[in-house]
Amino acid sequence: MLQVENLVKVYPSGERALKGCNLTIEGAQVVAMIGPSGSGKSTFIRCINRLVEPTEGRVVLDGVDVTALGMARLRRMRRQMGMIFQEFNLVERLTVMENVLSGRLGYVSFLRALLRRYPRQDIAAAFRLLERVGLAGYHNNRADALSGGQRQRVGIARALVQQPKILLVDEPTSSLDPKTSRVILRLITELAAEREIPAIINIHDVSLAQAFAHRVVGLSAGEIVFDGAPHQVSAETLNAIYGEEDWSRTIRPVTEEGEETADPPATPPIAAGVP
Amino acid sequence: MTPPVPPTPAPELTWEPPHLIPNFWWRWATVLGLVAYLAYASTALDLNWARFVHGLPRAWDFISRMVPPSFERWELIVSGGLESLRMALISSFIGVVIGVPVAVGASRNLSPWYVYLLSRGYIAISRTFPEVIIAILFVKAFGFGAFAGTLTLVAAASGFIGKLLAEDIEDIDPGQVEAIRATGAGGMKVLLYGVFPQVLPRLVGLAIYRLDINLRASTIIGIVGAGGIGSALFHSFKRYDYDFTLAILLVIIAMVMVAELVSTELRRRIQ
After folding, report:
1. Sites in chain A below the pLDDT cut of 50
2. CA–CA separation, B113 vs A252, rounded Å?
3. Residue B153 structural domain
4. A95 Cβ under 8 Å from any chain B Cβ
5. Which of A105, A127, A222, B120 is positioned for an S-S bond with A19, CB 3.0–4.6 A?
């Protein structure tokens, strides 16, 4: 269970990015966080693993107060939080396998990391995940040789090889085309369900959020202004989050939800490019 | 030259590019001042044509005593050349070993301010003095020979690698570092996975380039007594063995050219 209590972040520039946010996530819930650019979505999830240091408030994961941890214990806590990024943030010059295994860095010794001598079960887990995300056979390719969708699959494998208790996902589809975006989001939500872990997904695209999340949270200027089920998102909600606009073409009609399950199965047709 | 133009509705018909120094009087005062100083400096240095002409025969005499080059004492050239090569290789290696941590310390995006200042200070000291001046210092401290020379080149190489690699580290993609930090990795592992892969090609290129520079420098610093083929050169001057001097110079030129070729080729392959 993740509890975020009265989270405040004031940057050194004086900008108040978060103004006292409260959020509780129980069970393996997929929470989509929507909101305009600069509303504090990125800051919010980075405060959870303290890549950004919160100014005030508490973050509690499974009973442990993350905000109270010293550096060494914080690192151990970060191992349990898998993070997926907008720009994928793979180590470009390393192979796919090294990138996936880097998810185990918090567990292995420096010498093992240096010599790339990871424990067998880590390597086995990495191979299983590569197959699961549809990249079997790619392990020796360099990360910078992959397409955007493939890179994000590596990013997903890296996050999951950590055996995380929660997934923090920052705009996973903003650098991808519409089709790949759906495939990637489906993969993330499926994996979260398989592992029975919650996920917070920052996302611009309201209809994607409605299609894939169990719950939608709206952030506007550092404050949570909406928290509800996907079908509760209305024109009024979007006005509150983004400001006045004609939303008639943005909100997903409920009837279309069924179409999701009718889509082709999760493993996407990327195998054509396998060397 | 640029009187204030009153705002008129009519379009302006003349235009001049803006001057480096906008004020008319300051601009011309600067130009005249510079010309006056150059005139003064050349008289103060006693630059004159007569002295140049007078010196020409002596220069000719010196050169004619150099040819043909004498390779009679070739053992001295070979042992000096090999010593220079050893100095260059070892100092480049140690220079990289010291230079890499200095570079990390001198990167604003990775290091706390006190480590940053310390590392930048080291780089500044090492980069301020030319190799010959550092060599004079080390020869005074540690005595004549290759030891002082190698130390000199280590000091220069570590500052060189530190400065240039730090520039690259400051330009790395912070996203990759952030992703590695998010896995729970500590400082050293973040360097290993988040930072070094991004700058490794640059480091290899710099190391080879520095080896090239160290080889040239190792021939020069011998002149102040820091070992290598430069020492042989210096002694041949003192003994008026100008034909031997020319032989050594030819060998140095050949060594530097070979180093340059090898270095260019290696760096081309890395890119």
Report:
1. 254-275
2. 51
3. 74-270
4. no
5. A222
